[in-house]
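User: Please predict the structure of the protein below. I'd like the answer in structure-token form so I can feed it into my own downstream comparison script.

Assistant: Understood. Taking the following sequence of 265 residues as input:
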Amino acid sequence: MDASRTNPSSLSLLDRVAIVTGSSRGIGKAIAVHLATLGAKLVINYSSNRDQAQLVAQEINSSFPHNHSPRAITVQANVSDPAHVKSLFDEAETVFGSPVHVLVNSAGVVDSKYPSIANTSLEDFDLTFSVNTRGAFLCSKEAANRLKRGGGGRIILVSSSMVGGLKPGFGAYAASKAAVETMVKILAKELKGTGITANCVAPGPIATEMFFSGRSEELIRKNIEECPLGRLGETKDIAPVVGFLATDASEWINGQVIRANGGYV
């Protein structure tokens, strides 16, 4: 990451505070780093991998110094626990001395066994909905009550193009994300008068650790063949879409689901 690539005119999130859940790796990490290039101060959230989260914060703080104070901090939190979600906002407000402007909920899980619905265990179903749906609900609920009013407030939930792809083996996962997409459309209307927008970004297959887990080479090749652009997506394909939604330029986009998948669906 090269701080010289940024200039003041491009810092459209200068000094705005952003929480990115699940940002120790994968899509969440790419989003957090990209928001930093736009000038944002970051809360890097993780559930278990403290070392990776600290590396992300270190990368941001070393590349984008900010008056000797941190540009990024790490906060451990399980998004399915309301007390933990509250702690994300509490810590952001305490450290940065500002209300949170942007929430990006990127934390998510998928059952790497890719079972049919008939073979999905109740435990795996409950875990999927606990993180993906309950987590999105709790983060959205906290954000709706605490994000900055009057402009610049942004709620961005990461869904999945599998809601449209509807592939066998993704029953619980796709259902958990479909619920998130429905919720965000209603949330946008309920936030009338606050200046806060609420949207989803729904990536297609992205080359991350989570994507490759449990997938055969044959299935990976099939995913590539199904994409008109002939490749898997990369985290850098998603981060700028989220970055745009986080800025003032996106104000007229509200209550929408943006599928970023290269034409996969």
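That's the full token string. The chain has one domain: 12-258.
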